[in-house]
């Protein structure tokens, strides 16, 4: 919605809209309040003029008519009646006849205690306060007045204090304008901030390295997303070039390495021949390890559905075929509950091993598990593999036996070209756990280490639906 605007223009637009909405609401509220006060003032002045007409026989104000009754006014069925008696509050007018009023309404009963007397305590001020009160409430009342023992007089003042005479109350409209402007502004702010939040979430996502970030929102966000996408593309291209160079070097070194092996075989000194062959093997393993690590960083293998337990079974079987002490242990089986119509008993049974399905890169996961098993055999003489999981994550645990390493040592070994203090002459260049950590990150997971009862355990945590 705001793709054609910059954040600066949007801020200026929001401030202008807030000022316009606030100014319009204040003007409408003030105008409505002024019109309402003028309406009440007209009713008050009409009450003063009515009292003067009743006392001195002067002309009635506009909008009022008087009708003299022969009998007392009758109260219609279902109507409410309010009775008020006014006497003079001035000592020099102590003999003024009292005014008795009856206010009949089909809707309300006027609260006598809430009639505010304005302009003093005279009868005229009291009557004017009553007519002002009639104008405050929307109704069509009947007003009857009696002076002393004189006949009752009906006062018709619908044109002064009736509902039709009241001005339109626009205060709710002013409040609605403020609320609507507030909702609109908050919605716009939430939309813009939501775009930045989505961009930040996509940037934190490990998959951002292999997919372009969404480009949308305000101009500043578009420019940022385009710059990050360009940087990520350059990074991917650099990794691809690095892998291409390493692959070419590995291929080109194959022929010289073969010649070196052939020439080494001609050396009669066995010790020298063994050292040269070891150097050649170490050089080849180093190149292959760096190439594998770079390919793991790129993560070009596609994600597909796979069974993690089946993959673990295949890897363990390869080690068992050559007599290596690698075992696949079963995770605790879930309880199988059986209920009948006539019994609520629960029967526990052992079900078949779970498949632990997920979306992943099978070749990369196989490489990660192989590296963990090799690490366990190298430092702990045995590898026990366990596959477990929940609705969101899957876990592969590889425990060794008798390892002298601790959690800090293994965490340090996840760095490139790091080897354990007890590795001795064991094969490796120090990239195994670094490759595992990279593969775990590409599957939305992580690599953790913990001490087990017999040694150390590496725990590979994977997201089931990462891509």
TrEMBL record:
The keyword Glycoprotein does not apply. One of its GO terms (molecular function) is phosphorelay sensor kinase activity. Its EC number is 2.7.13.3. The chain crosses the membrane at residues 172-190. Residues 248-462 form the Histidine kinase domain. It is a multi-pass membrane protein. PROSITE patterns: HIS_KIN. It catalyses: ATP + protein L-histidine = ADP + protein N-phospho-L-histidine. It is found in: Cell membrane. Pfam families: HATPase_c. It comes from the Bacteria. One of its GO terms (cellular component) is plasma membrane. SMART domains: HATPase_c (SM00387), HisKA (SM00388). Its main location: membrane. Keywords: ATP-binding, Cell membrane, Kinase, Membrane, Nucleotide-binding, Phosphoprotein, Transferase, Transmembrane, Transmembrane helix. This is histidine kinase. It comes from Paracoccus seriniphilus.
């Amino acid at each position: 919605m705001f793709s054609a605007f910059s954040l600066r223009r949007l801020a200026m637009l929001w401030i202008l809209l807030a000022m316009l909405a606030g100014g319009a609401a204040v003007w409408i509220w003030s105008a409505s309040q002024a019109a309402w006060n003028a309406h009440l003032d007209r009713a008050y002045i009409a009450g003063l003029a009515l009292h003067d007409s009743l006392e001195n026989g002067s002309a009635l104000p506009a909008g009022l008519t008087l009708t003299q009754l022969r009998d007392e006014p009758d109260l219609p069925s279902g109507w409410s009646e309010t009775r008020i008696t006014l006497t003079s509050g001035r000592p020099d007018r102590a003999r003024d006849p009292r005014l008795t009023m009856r206010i009949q309404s089909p809707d309300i009963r006027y609260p006598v205690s809430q009639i505010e007397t304005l302009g003093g305590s005279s009868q005229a001020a009291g009557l004017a306060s009553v007519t002002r009160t009639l104008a405050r409430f929307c109704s069509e009342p009947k007003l009857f007045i009696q002076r002393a023992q004189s006949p009752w007089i009906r006062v018709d003042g619908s044109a002064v204090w009736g509902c039709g005479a009241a001005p339109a109350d626009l205060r709710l409209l002013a409040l609605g304008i403020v609320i609507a402007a507030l909702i609109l502004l908050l919605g716009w702010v939430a939309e813009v901030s939501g775009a930045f939040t989505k961009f930040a979430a996509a940037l934190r996502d490990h998959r951002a390295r292999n997919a372009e970030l969404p480009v949308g929102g305000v101009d500043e966000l578009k420019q940022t997303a385009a710059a990050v996408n360009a940087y990520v593309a350059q990074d991917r291209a650099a990794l691809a070039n690095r892998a291409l160079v390493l692959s070419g070097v590995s291929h080109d070194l194959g022929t010289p390495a073969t010649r070196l092996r052939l020439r080494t075989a001609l050396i009669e000194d066995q010790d020298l021949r063994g050292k040269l062959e070891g150097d050649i093997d170490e050089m080849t393993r180093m190149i292959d390890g760096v190439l594998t690590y770079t390919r793991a960083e790129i993560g070009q293998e596609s994600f597909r559905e796979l069974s993690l337990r089946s993959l673990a079974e295949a890897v363990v079987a390869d080690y068992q075929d050559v007599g290596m002490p690698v075992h696949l242990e079963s995770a605790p089986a879930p309880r199988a509950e059986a209920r009948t119509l006539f019994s609520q008993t629960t029967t526990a049974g052992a079900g078949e091993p779970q498949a632990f399905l997920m979306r992943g890169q099978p070749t990369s996961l196989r490489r990660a598990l192989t590296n963990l098993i090799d690490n366990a055999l190298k430092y702990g003489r045995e590898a026990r593999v366990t596959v477990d999981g929940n609705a969101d994550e899957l876990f592969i645990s590889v425990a060794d036996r008798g390892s002298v390493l601790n959690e800090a040592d293994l965490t340090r070994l996840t760095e490139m070209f790091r080897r354990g203090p007890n590795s001795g002459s064991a094969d490796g260049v120090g990239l195994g756990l670094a490759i595992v950590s990279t593969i775990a990150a590409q599957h939305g997971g992580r690599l953790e280490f913990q001490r087990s009862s017999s040694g150390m355990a590496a725990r590979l945590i994977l997201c089931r639906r990462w891509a």
